[in-house]
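User: Hello, beginner here. Can you help me understand these amino acid letters and fold codes? It all follows right here:
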Amino acid sequence: MKTVVVRNIKRTDAELVKRLGALGVATVHEAYGRSGLMKPYLRPVWAGGEVAGTAVTVLAQPGDNWMIHVAVEPRQPADILVVGCTTDNTDGMFGDLLATSLKARGVTGLVIDAGCGDVKSLREMGFPVWSKAISAKGTVKATLGAVNVPVVCAGINVYPGDAVIADDDGVVVVRKKDAAEVAAKGEKRQADEEGKRKQLAAGKLGLDMYNMREPLAKAGLVYVDEPEPE
């Protein structure tokens, strides 16, 4: 592993990131062919946070947040820090002091495949974090990693500058080259769902809206008026 910091990366177009963020994680995931979704153990440390931005990636050693401090520097507004670890770890590698530093420099959130502490303070300051665990276990600053190299975070390959969308449903990552297509498909899907939502709100059954009755019958589903005698 090269212990390197890449200062300049190519980021997903800001307007595309904004469009993806407006769709939310679930719609983007579906529009992306059900790919890019990080493992469900990655959860927001406080409810209601949502963010869309471009990935500044960090490869860190377990229980060591040295490279997170390094990554505070090479960033742009609306970046999201995405931290992967070289091995499985749940130590509290991030807290309110690092969040204060990141927020001051325009970073909008953190996704970390490890632990996070200071949850109450993070909620009060409005800094959203998605982590593998909540842990007060402290860390060291002893071993080098890398910044802005490809990393694996919660099962997903993340490249510097990829679009990252996160909300209460989880975290989804869209590659730079795919962002325009996914945004367009997601917006079409969102418009279709709005029409269906109106029909369901008016009382129409999903059985009829999705034409399920015939395939259910072919599969062998039978309706009866009374239960069979015991």
Observations:
- The longest strand covers residues 51-60.
- The two ends are 68 Å apart (CA to CA).
